[in-house]
Amino acid sequence: MLTSLKQKVVSLLKDQVPLDRKTILSSLELPKVLEHGHLAMPMFPLAKIFKKSPQLIAQEMATQLRLPPEIEKVEAVAGYLNFHFQTFFIQKELLENITKPLPPPAQRKKIAIDFSSPNVAKPMHIGHLRATVIGQAIYNLAKAQGHEVIGINHLGDWGVQFGKLAWAYLQWKDDYDFENEPFESLYALYVRFHKEAEKHPEMNEAGSAMFKKLEEGDPEVQKIWKEFIYISMQEYEKLWKQLGVHHDLVRGESFYNDRLETVEKILEEKGLLVESEGALVVPLDEFNLPPCLIRKKDGASLYATRDIASAIYRMEELKCDLNLYVVGADQTLHFQQVFKVLEKMGYPWAKNCHHISFGMYRFKDVGKLSSRKGQIIRLDEVLEKAVQQIKTLIDEKNPSLPQKDKVAQQVGVGAIIFNDLVNDRVKDVEFNWNKALSFDGDSGPYVQYCLVRCRSILEKYQKPLPTAFSQELSSPEEKALLRHLLNYEETLQKAFENFKPHLVANYLLDTCKLFNHFYHKHKVLGASEEKDRLLLVFCTQKTLEKGLKILNMEAPQAM
Known about the structure:
The protein is α/β, with parallel strands linked by helices. It is 52% helix and 10% strand. 39% of the residues are buried. It has a 5-stranded parallel sheet, with helices on both faces. It is flat, with a radius of gyration of 28 Å. The chain folds into 3 domains: 2-85, Arginyl tRNA synthetase N-terminal domain (Gyrase A, domain 2, 2-Layer Sandwich); 110-361, HUPs (Rossmann fold), CATH 3.40.50; 379-550, Isoleucyl-tRNA Synthetase, Domain 1. The longest helix is centred in the middle third of the chain and has 25 residues, at 219-243. The protein contains 21 helices and 13 strands.
């Protein structure tokens, strides 16, 4: 919506400044305060060209420009040219575009996003939440921008741990209720093996021997391994469904087994492989990075080898333009090495592979998490606790609410998602239950409640909404909300360009604050401006709905 305003300013300035349209467009900024208008153009780049101060250039241009009807005035402020659009024009633009999809991108891209990607036989824990919800939000952002997106589940389904698990299964499976609790039994086996192996190290050798059978295609071990994957995927799918998460492709680590030899062959042909203490590595001294380990001394491949193969598959076979890995910041060095190896291999698209890193969750009174020792905060338990707490709140505040269980799911799960996404992904997050579930603070329930309030106002009107504004909204609160709603499209573009969904979450919080400020100061139903204010409520509702959809949160009908 702001794009159309920018285009009008570009048309106004194109014959006045010696800059091309693209440069003018990229120079336009959003003033920080409403009093400075809707758009601002800095005059500093023109100082050398005109050999005048930016302040003088702005003053001269402000008096010389012939303004179209939709621009109310242009002011010179501290070296900027500030453009104030007519409020009624803003209202018209907003209403005409509020239900339309975003304009198509200048260049539509095909994007692979690797996210969530748990390890088979291990429960998804709170650490997986960030990879899951950040990845899905970036997926949604890319879709909303008009790009083709492939969500990939790079399932951790290969490695010596599966030989150990297969050995444990054959030894102890009868001790567990695999028929009724398959996943819990599988994880119990995993924990038990590692606990027992601390006392009996020879078990690790037995596990390695079992993994060798798996690698060689032993039918019995292959059957057990596939059962592990099936049991795990059934469990993960429940959680993904609860979070509204979708993957387009499951391409686990095992998918690349028959591609690893090709990777090594290319590296060898290009003279990049070096033997180091019996292992094969690619030196990366020129990038001030440690060597990238391609094959261990015992012949086993590593994560790096598989990630090189996965990048080649995504970019060469799937024909993607961007390859994104939504993985924690602790893997930064790993991806730096992988991308530099791809660069040395001569792939020009290596620069289009990006590690979308994120910080970790921090909890008070919780030690180091360990899947092997069974010391984890399970994601299913976190979601269930959130839902139960919301149910308790509903019973206290609105016991007659229809579909209480459904609303509790929407609000409880939404609270956990929003509590993650409202933070800049690069920062660590301290998990706080009271903050996450608050209806008053910067939380998901606060945004959902604001949307419910908008819907309630519109439902109480009980007539068809008008199709156009009849008069100009004049109060500062109305103008501030209008100006903010115009910026939704720009916010999504910036969030996608930087892969930072927190920009959307914070935009929604600001939307709610501005709306509540307007609503508390001005009557809507029954006011002389009723129809026009109802349209402002409608535009707010639609913006909140679209924004929550980007964050993968459901919008309750009532709360």
